[in-house]
Write a structure and sequence with these properties.
With 177 residues, this protein is of the alpha+beta class. 20% of the residues lie in helices and 38% in strands. It has one domain (2-162). The chain has a 6-stranded antiparallel β-sheet with strand order 3-4-2-1-6-5. The two termini are 37 Å apart.
Length: 177
């Protein structure tokens, strides 16, 4: 018998992002519309399979010391699917938001002091900072700074797949004598 099965899978995205710094924001929920620091993915650089298991080396995976994962390139990629997945990633917290619920999650993550401090530490080490006048970016009405950074993200997805499933054997009932 054939049936649909919902399958969860994850991919590793490596992308170029703008780190945004808004000096006028102090991460005050309900007051500041945008966080002091956040990442905005701009360009997909790599799309790979990954594993946490060291034995994956036997299957062609290579250890990436920067992210502490085993990674492997994918032979055949549906570029439309990957592009759509990247747009999805760009519009999901902590990078962006598409709905009111997404915005609340975006605020919860990006306004968190430890998250913001981590990004601030990275931002201070960057050299390629650019000043952007308020209103040039339609989302940001305040003067702000951006800097290019490379980031990675493991993102989960789901798909429906046709699978063969076994049929139960018929039960034989015996009459007791």
């Amino acid at each position: 018998m054939i049936a649909y099965k919902r399958i969860k899978y994850s991919k590793l995205f490596t992308f170029e992002a703008d780190m945004v710094f808004i000096p006028e924001s102090y991460n005050r929920k309900g007051i500041d519309p945008l966080p002091r620091f956040w990442l905005r993915p701009q360009k997909l650089l790599e799309y790979q399979n990954f594993s946490h298991n060291p034995s994956s080396i036997n299957n062609g995976y290579i250890k990436n010391e920067d992210i502490n994962l085993y990674v492997k390139n994918i032979d055949f990629i549906d570029t439309d699917l990957v592009n759509n997945q990247f747009v999805f990633l760009q519009n999901m917290p902590p990078y962006g938001f598409a709905t009111e619920t997404d915005y609340q999650e975006f605020v919860d993550i990006t306004f968190d002091s430890s998250y913001s401090l981590n990004l601030e530490t990275k931002y201070k080490s960057l050299k390629n900072k650019t000043f952007v006048k308020g209103g040039v970016d339609p989302l940001i009405s305040r003067d702000h700074f951006t800097a290019k950074i490379q980031a990675t993200r493991v993102q989960e997805f789901f798909k429906e797949k046709l699978v063969n499933i076994g049929e139960p054997k018929s039960l034989t009932i015996f009459n007791e004598v």
